[in-house]
């Protein structure tokens, strides 16, 4: 069962779709979220995220610093920036701060 992923930047909503999984760059390292994950709020570092939408086509995006609010049926990501783009060989978006 998918959960709702919402990514918001100062410019507005960047993404709002049902997804099966998301991997985010947390302050203590990358972490993955699945449906019915335990609730928590955590800071995020600039880096790349991996999104597995319900349709099965994996997406990657470069994000700026921010926070993630994880709940059982929804993950809300509040970040300085978010750019979906082409994925490099290692799975990191070409425009990701992690590649610079």
Give the gist of this structure:
With 100 residues, the chain is mainly β. It contains no helices and 9 strands.
Tags for this entry?
ATP Synthase, domain 1, 0% helix, mainly beta, 9 strands, disordered C terminus, 100 residues, 58% strand, 9-stranded mixed beta sheet
What is the typical, i.e. mean, pLDDT? Answer: 87
Poorly predicted runs = 88-100
How many strands, what sense, and barrel or not for the largest sheet? 9 strands, mixed
CATH class value: Mainly Beta
Radius of gyration of CA atoms, rounded to a whole number: 12 Å
* Tally of structural domains: 1
Instruction: Give the proportion of residues in helices.
Output: under 10%
Total helical segments: 0
The SS-based structural class is mainly beta
Q: β content, as a range?
A: over 45%
Report the strand count: 9
Instruction: Sketch the topology as an H/E string, one letter per element.
Output: EEEEEEEEE
Q: Could you say which overall geometry the principal axes of the C-alpha atoms support?
A: globular
Under CATH, the topology can be stated as ATP Synthase, domain 1
CATH superfamily: F0F1 ATP synthase delta/epsilon subunit, N-terminal
């Amino acid at each position: 069962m998918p959960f709702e992923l919402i990514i918001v930047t100062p410019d507005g909503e960047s993404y709002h779709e049902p997804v099966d999984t998301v991997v985010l760059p947390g302050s203590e390292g990358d972490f993955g979220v699945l449906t019915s994950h335990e609730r928590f709020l955590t800071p995020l570092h600039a880096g790349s995220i991996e999104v597995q939408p319900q349709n099965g086509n994996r997406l990657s995006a470069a994000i700026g610093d921010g926070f993630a609010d994880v709940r059982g049926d929804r993950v809300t990501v509040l970040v300085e920036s978010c750019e979906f783009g082409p994925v490099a060989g290692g799975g990191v978006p070409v425009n990701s701060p992690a590649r610079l």
